[in-house]
Amino acid sequence: MSLGAYCVICCRRxxxxxxxxxxxxxxxxxxxxxxxxxxxxxxxxxxxxLGGSLFLTYEVLALKKSVTLDxxxxxxxxxxxxxxxxxxxxxxxxxxxxxxxxxxxxHKAVRKMLAASARVLRSPFSDSFSxxxxxxxxxxxxxxxxxxxxxxxxxxxxxxxxxxxxxxxHDYQYRIIAQACDPRTLIGLxxxxxxxxxxxxxxxxxxxxxxxxxxxxxxxxxxxxxxxTELDECLQYFTSLALSESSQSLAAQKGGLWCFGGNGxxxxxxxxxxxxxxxxxxxxxxxxxxxEIPSHCDHIEAGGGLQLLQRLFRLHKxxxxxxxxxxxxxxxxxxxxxxHPAIVRSGWVSMxxxxxxxxxxxxxxxxxxxxxxxxxxxxxxxxxxxxYVLHPQCRTSQPxxxxxxxxxxxxxxxxxxxxxxxxxRVLTESAEVDENRYTTCWPKTWLAKDCPALRIISVEYDTxxxxxxxxxxxxxxxxxxxxxxxLSKLRAAGVGDRPVIWISHxxxxxxxxxxxxEASRNPELxxxxxxxxxxxxxSVPHHGxxxxxxxxxxxxxxxxxxxxxxxxxxxPALKAxxxxxxxxxxxxxFQVLNFVETKPTFIGxxxxxxxxxxxxxxxxxxxxxxxxxxxLDICKPKTKDAFFVSTYSTVHL
Length: 653
Description:
alpha/beta; 7-stranded mixed sheet; two-stranded antiparallel sheet; 8% strand; elongated; transmembrane; endoplasmic reticulum; ARM-like
């Protein structure tokens, strides 16, 4: 526009000046006329060049104001598929005047002065950050980013803590951190209790499924691609079962002729309300077992397993069982540090950070285990499958003074065994949030609140009353085998590095006794013995259980499992275990507390049995406290102030 106006003015001057020159200067000859014309052409050409330059300069400046792109972020995040571009609305661009320009230039000058002085005082800005054109209020963000990458661990941890405590930033400042931070900082923010959700970018888009394919079929293909080496009998059983069931389900969906009647749909519908979810659980259960083998984890990642599991996680957002199995696989894969970059790139950190803040204790604990295995900055231990940290699940400045371990018994679990008494449960939405009214895991809710300096660990392992109901028919695990397996996992989790208190229910107490005896015979595990301070037994059948007697007497009906058979009163292994442990515990002067039930327990709807009588629960050392409850409720208090006062006093030892 300015160029056009300038050209018009120049042309009008040329047009009006020529006649006057001819009337006042008749003496000019033709040579002078040619010189005069060439001068006009030069002036016109110069005007065009100058106007064009001004026009281009104006357009470049306007474009620069319209779109501001952080080139440093582009350089550092060029491997990612998302770049956060700050755009300036057109109305705001036009409103900037000379005052705004002067303010911006002043800020640049001040920043250059700060950067120059900072280089003298330990250089807080690195070369990659010192050239970034940012506003004065953004300096803190970039300083924290720089601090999070320093060589000293204390500085990095402090930077993550300051980021997690920032709740007054603008949205784009959180996004800057989300894009520019390294994986170590991202995992630290995910494990920080108060970190803002905007620190985590959404996961990258998932690849499209192949034509005429489904998640169930892709899951089956992934399972079939895993190596068939290093497999024990149970893993082979789970793999063959999953492939068989998924094949039948796929045939049913496609109208195959594999069953009587020519249509497999009724069989698929017999799985439940969501047939695909049940079939997928078969595959997930097998993949969980495969993920316990490090070399198989590489194949899961190479086969697109991280993205496929993420798709299943979103698809079954209302199915906690499926989601927990998926997080078990991610937690197992996170035990291999070489897979950490792939797990971070796939977007799992942001998804786990969301679940960690859930009020559902089981889901949050699975996410906490996976994130702890990813966090090599503050966590030296590794939590293998079945070992869950109930407290602390986030990074904390509270020093840990002791470990408290919870070991469930026959047919128990890491969470449900330690829930509050069911009759007191208030089935309302508010009760799910108010943990003072009801808790699904009192060690996580009550004990952690009263004793924050403890690390509370709960262990899970598979058991069964009968071989008919065993998850793996080929599995025959004795107490000795399970104790060695758990002992290895607990040592990997750092148990023995600080004082330890063992809390167990039923058969779990036998495992605790066996683990301590095995550790006493192994010099490499001597720290566990030296740091054991005490133990609490809830209805532990030190001298056998009547359940075992009942199961053996009708063994042709129940087919009692190996665990149940070992609980018989006449079991030589049980008697040897008791005698050896009593002598060992007296020598070490362990603090022991025994609780015992006084009410019978219903087994099914017709059988009523006193599972562990008082004489069997008496270890022979320590106090014995009878409680007016049955075997299942002995470790489930009705209220926080119930008989667990004795438990708390023992923990404080």
